[in-house]
Amino acid sequence: MNVLIIEDxxxxxxxxxxxxEREHFAVTVAANGExxxxxxxxRPFDIILLDLNLPGRDGIEVLSTMRQKGIRTPVLILxxxxxxxxxxxxxxxxxxxxxxxxxxxxxxxxxxxVLLRRGRSDAETHRSLGDLELDIMTRKVSRAHRPIQLTTKxxxxxxxxxxxxxxxxxxxxxxxxxxxxxxxxxPLDNVIDVHIAHLRRKIDEGFPVRLLxxxxxxxxxxxxxxx
Length: 227
Ligand code: CA
Description:
This protein is α/β, with parallel strands linked by helices. It folds into 2 domains: 2-119, Rossmann fold; 124-222, Winged helix-like DNA-binding domain superfamily/Winged helix DNA-binding domain (Arc Repressor Mutant, subunit A, Orthogonal Bundle), CATH 1.10.10. Helices cover 41% and strands 22% of the residues. The protein is built from 9 helices and 12 strands. It has helices spanning 10-22, 33-42, 59-68, 84-92, 105-117, 122-125, 152-163, 171-177, 189-204, and strands spanning 2-6, 26-30, 47-51, 75-79, 97-100, 126-129, 132-135, 140-143, 146-148, 168-169, 212-215, 219-222. A 5-stranded parallel sheet has the order 2-1-3-4-5, sandwiched between helices. It has a 4-stranded antiparallel sheet with strand order 6-7-8-9. α7 (152-163) packs across α9 (189-204). The structure holds calcium ion (CA). Calcium ion binds next to loops.
């Protein structure tokens, strides 16, 4: 899940970013409304945390302009305790929820998950193949109801395989979609092999039906049947 934090107080932004990264969000920080607005237009985010009191283009302006442009990304506004009026203006301008500073971090995460889940069906937040199940929101994975602990990369890898279940996934697809931050120039074959081996051990070992197959010379296949 990609989150954009628009917050000019560096310490607050840093603390939020660190906490959310620990919760496995991919975090981008903008220190003012201009940068935030630029980023919102440049690429899709799953949710935006918006401080209202920003230098230059303020939070309300960012919010109402993006809504006018038809950008529906959920926005959670962060307001100062005394700014009741701006909270109301924020909600009227298209914010989905608000939190008054200072707030407890777990409450922020809980509110974010509600917004992220809203309007999404189970089919969008839940992926499965046979007895293997993955929840995108809680990042929980299990097989035959037995919980499986995955690293962040293994989770991303499995999520990608589940999205493409019963289809052959090439190494190029993995480089592009799962390792997008590294870029094509770096040789990734060994890295991919190591992650596949770890993932395979975690999801397949001890189960009668193997799910993650290597298709020699072509790529990989997540399927209940042999390639
Ligand atoms: Ca501020």
